[in-house]
Design goal:
InterPro entries: Cl-channel_core (IPR014743), ClC (IPR001807), ClC-type_chloride_channel (IPR050368). About 70% of the residues lie in helices and about 0% in strands. The chain is built from 20 helices and no strands.
């Protein structure tokens, strides 16, 4: 040990003399070696050392100047950046949600026939905002930028996205806040990466981490939100950008905590589902059978959305005119079928708590599908994930009305999982999200239903940007 200590001081002394390291570092090394030093004796010897030893000394200097490199853990500085993105995302989501709830309570008294002019006006105002401040795009554009533009999401149109989506969602559009928040928080991740001169896959990873933070804040499921942000980027490959997996996990966890602290929503299932009985082997077969109905509803939804999109694209009118027409259509549906209004976050609990006739459920199913289709194709801002869960639950209640005495919780989650996996192509995250949102903790039946919807989905996905470059 004495020879090791003496060699260490031999390497450090001339560097201190030449100013290559700080004198405090030299005294620290000398103290740790527990031996005395005599520079007058060792300096002539050290001056004759060869190039290899000098390079070793320079390495030691770098380690002394950057003591974090001695860190024996996986933890690193980049971890703090992931946490920071999650915290920022949680703050953005928390403030957005708080304002949205205030607007929902403010506009809730508008009922009956007044819903139609309200939603037409909201569409007109949101369209004017987009026309003046810039078009922030939709989920298709987000996926396209992540896949083809290196993960660059431009934050310049975030004010347009925030203001227009508040109007669209609060007035009663059948689209939720997940898509606007994914754009806002994801572009914030891009902005931070650019400010720190981060490029390539690291920039894409930070953008995806921001997207995951947004999904997690709304769904209350860090694991599910992370996987959803990764799965939605491709229609076949579950995790194409695997480098972003850990950053997305870290950002999701910090975002989840911050969002709960701001909104005081609490931890637990979002929807009050019936209690699931002891699982049986037959449940896996029934889950796939029920999933066929959910998948069929997914096919119907995709067909109607494509027809409505084609219809609106034929009109060469400004965005605010198109959104006003969309508001008239959505408002008319909401007037005749009030339960089809809004993005179904609270309406799903009403659907589960009350008894509805088979005729009403069939009308509600058609009304909700058209309400979502008019919302997303006429330029209204919002996401259709939570509304799709509502459609799936409605299909499940229709099956239960046609064949009473079945396992209702199993029917509901199977149809909800199948339609979401069919439309969004996210089979794995759907399992986690539904388990968290419904309190249905038996993963395997949901897995069978989700995979059924995924593999029986149309070959061409609804989100065209999910297709690979060669497809």
């Amino acid at each position: 040990m004495l020879h090791v200590a003496l060699a260490l001081k031999l390497a450090v002394w001339p560097l201190a003399q030449e100013g290559l390291i700080n004198w405090p570092h030299f005294f620290i090394v000398s103290y740790l070696s527990r031996t005395s030093f005599t520079p007058s004796c060792i300096y002539p010897y050290f001056c004759r050392m060869d190039f290899k030893r000098r390079r070793l000394a320079v390495t030691l200097r770098n380690q002394l100047n950057y003591p974090l490199q001695f860190n024996p853990f996986v933890f690193s500085r980049i971890f703090l950046l992931w946490v920071a993105i999650g915290i920022i995302g949680g703050v953005i989501a928390g403030v957005y949600w708080t304002v949205l709830e205030s607007l929902l309570h403010f506009l809730a008294p508008v009922q009956g026939l007044w819903v139609i002019p309200l939603m037409a006006t909201a569409g007109l105002l949101a369209g004017i905002i987009i026309h003046k401040l810039g078009d922030p795009g939709e989920m298709d554009l987000i996926v396209n930028n992540i896949r083809l533009k290196g993960g660059h999401l431009e934050p310049k149109n975030n004010p347009s996205m925030i203001l227009s989506s508040w109007l669209c969602i609060a007035s009663g559009g059948s689209a939720g806040p997940e898509a606007p928040l994914v754009q806002v928080v994801g572009s914030t991740g891009t902005w931070i990466a650019k400010k720190l001169k981060i490029r390539g896959e690291d920039l894409r990873s930070l953008t995806i981490a921001g997207m995951a933070a947004a999904f997690t804040a709304l769904f209350g499921a860090p694991l599910g939100g992370t996987l959803f942000a990764l799965e939605i980027l491709h229609h076949k490959h579950v995790v194409e950008y695997y480098q972003a997996l850990i950053p997305a996990f870290v950002a999701s966890c910090s975002s989840y905590v911050v969002f709960i602290l701001i909104t005081h929503i609490g931890i637990g299932p979002t929807w009050n589902f019936p209690v699931y009985a002891t699982p049986e082997l037959n449940d896996f077969f029934y889950a796939m059978l029920y999933a066929l109905a959910g998948t069929a509803a997914g096919w119907l939804f995709i067909f109607i959305v494509r027809q409505c999109r084609s219809l609106f694209q034929r009109f060469g009118v400004p965005i605010y005119t198109k959104m006003m027409v969309g508001g008239l259509l959505i408002g008319t549906i909401a007037y005749f079928v009030p339960l089809s209004r809004y993005f179904s976050h609270d309406e799903l609990n009403i659907l589960l708590a009350e008894e509805f006739s088979l005729e009403f459920l069939l009308i509600l199913l058609v009304a909700k599908i058209f309400a979502i289709a008019f919302t997303v194709t006429s330029g209204w801002r919002g996401g259709f994930i939570i509304p799709l869960f509502f459609v799936g639950a409605t299909v499940g209640l229709i099956i239960n009305s046609l064949f009473p005495g079945q396992n209702l919780p199993l029917i509901l989650v199977s149809c909800m999982a199948a339609i979401n996996a069919c439309v969004t192509r996210t089979p794995i995250s759907t399992i986690i999200l539904l388990s968290t949102l419904t309190g249905f903790h038996q993963f395997i039946p949901i897995m069978f239903a989700s995979l059924t919807g995924f593999f029986l989905a149309p070959k061409t996905p609804l989100i065209n940007a999910q297709l690979g470059l060669q497809e």
